[in-house]
């Protein structure tokens, strides 16, 4: 669907065939990003990876992230940290279960994903001293500002007017100042205590800031480049994993037969253990199906970050001019009734039939009806990090506890709030009972 939103020509892609044309056939022509005053402020001139225009700088940042920060080996190095944070969360739930008290699971899961990401990025949890609350404020407000309606995005000439830019970006500037204060503090702490280069290269657990400081001169990164990447990691890593966990638990409570089946699988495989560990996860096929189905119905980013065409292209018989904003409607792709049987129902089994068959969609970007992490040049590099976080936590929630709605609550409100990510609006309150 080709529209004109304000002064900007915009293409909305809602079919798998058109998505393939944009994200695979003509990926090179649609790999750039729309210039935005808001992202320029929050991401230090859009020098991060998510919002940087396609070009040499983006390719360099992408290489750094894929090779040094989010490689499979690097994600694996945080295994003990993930398991430690899971045990901390289980202890908090067990305290509530001992009192037969309800748990604000949304708040707990948000804290869990925050602590996981903060450990990976800075080497420490942000618990205590009010830093966790500040961090959540920065992530949530930044997400809202990026994903909200910004007039200058649809009338770009307005962004060239200083008075408009100051008015539109005033709140973003205040948030950026808070990001600056937080990031400068933790970067300075690391700079004082940086490991020697040979120690970093030995392959031990080093956080993102350690790595970025160790390669800063090699890649000619400014401090603002480093901070832009860190904001990317903080925002992209916390909200997405939290939303998937929160929605998965909400769906499981509303589908008790699925909940029972998942608990049986997890408890059978990890029977007799203190907790589910990462080596147990490979055999949990139904767990993986539940997570994939959650990603289908509740993608944290149902409308992809807009792409920008940099040359004229033919899509489905139509010429799409250079300078067109392209919005991939992942929500529509994942609910296409021509492809998905009973598209609105929560059915993890759809990802398990004929296990090993190429007909079963994966989340690697190979099936254009199912793109929870995107695909092509702009595919999400944090896929492995996010899935590792979600799998270990959901498995342990199933392993240690039974779950019920509080007395008097009949139904979970699935209404969503909108930002650059989309999650449930109301907190999920559940009553755990320990086994």
Concise overview:
Helices cover about 50% and strands about 10% of the residues.
Q: Would you give an account of this structure?
A:
- The chain is of the alpha+beta class and 435 residues long.
- The protein has a single domain (2-434), classed as Cytochrome p450.
- Helices cover 50% and strands 10% of the residues.
- The protein is built from 16 helices and twelve strands.
- The chain has helices at residues 16-25, 37-42, 56-69, 72-77, 79-98, 105-122, 131-147, 151-154, 162-192, 197-200, 208-214, 223-254, 256-269, 285-297, 330-333, 383-400; strands spanning 2-5, 8-13, 32-33, 103-104, 307-308, 313-315, 318-320, 325-328, 401-404, 416-418, 422-424, 429-434.
- The strands form four sheets. The protein has a five-stranded mixed beta sheet.
- The longest helix has 32 residues, at 223-254.
- The chain is globular, with a radius of gyration of 22 Å.
């Amino acid at each position: 669907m080709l529209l004109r939103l304000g002064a900007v020509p915009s293409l909305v892609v809602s079919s798998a065939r058109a998505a393939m044309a944009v994200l695979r056939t003509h990926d090179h022509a649609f790999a750039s990003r729309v210039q935005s005053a808001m992202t320029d402020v929050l991401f230090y001139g859009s020098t991060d990876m998510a919002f940087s225009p396609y070009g040499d700088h983006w390719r360099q940042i992408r290489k750094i992230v894929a090779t040094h920060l989010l490689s499979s080996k690097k994600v694996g190095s945080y295994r003990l940290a993930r398991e430690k944070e899971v045990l901390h969360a289980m202890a908090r739930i067990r305290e509530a279960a001992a009192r037969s008290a309800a748990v604000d699971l949304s708040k707990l899961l948000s804290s869990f994903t925050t602590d996981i990401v903060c450990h990976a990025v800075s080497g420490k949890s942000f618990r205590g001293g009010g830093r966790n609350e500040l961090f959540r404020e920065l992530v949530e407000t930044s997400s809202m500002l990026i994903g909200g309606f910004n007039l200058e995005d649809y009338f770009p000439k307005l962004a060239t007017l200083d008075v408009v830019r100051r008015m539109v970006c005033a709140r973003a500037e205040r948030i950026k100042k808070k990001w600056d204060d937080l990031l400068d503090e933790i970067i300075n702490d690391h700079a004082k205590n940086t490991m020697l280069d040979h120690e970093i290269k030995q392959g031990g657990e080093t956080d993102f800031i350690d790595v970025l400081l160790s390669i800063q001169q090699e890649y000619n990164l400014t401090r603002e480049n480093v901070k832009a990447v860190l904001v990317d990691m903080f925002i992209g890593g916390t909200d997405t994993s939290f939303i998937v966990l929160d929605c998965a638990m909400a769906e499981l409570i509303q589908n008790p037969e699925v909940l029972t089946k998942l608990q049986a699988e997890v408890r059978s495989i990890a029977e007799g253990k203190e907790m589910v560990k990462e080596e147990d996860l490979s055999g949990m096929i139904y767990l993986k199906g539940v997570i994939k189905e959650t990603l289908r119905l509740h993608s944290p980013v149902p409308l992809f970050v807009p792409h920008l065409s940099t040359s004229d292209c033919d899509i489905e018989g139509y010429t799409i001019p250079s300078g067109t904003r392209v919005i991939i409607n992942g929500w529509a792709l994942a609910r296409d009734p021509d492809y998905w049987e009973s598209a609105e129902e929560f059915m993890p089994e759809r990802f398990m039939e004929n296990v090993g068959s190429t007909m079963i969609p994966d989340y690697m970007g190979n099936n254009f009806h199912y793109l929870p992490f995107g695909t092509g040049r702009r595919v999400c590099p944090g896929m492995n990090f996010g899935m590792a976080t979600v799998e270990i936590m959901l498995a342990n929630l199933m392993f240690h506890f039974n779950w019920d709605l509080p007395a008097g609550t009949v139904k979970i409100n699935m209404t969503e709030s909108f930002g650059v990510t989309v999650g449930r609006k109301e907190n999920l309150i559940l009553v755990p009972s320990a086994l």
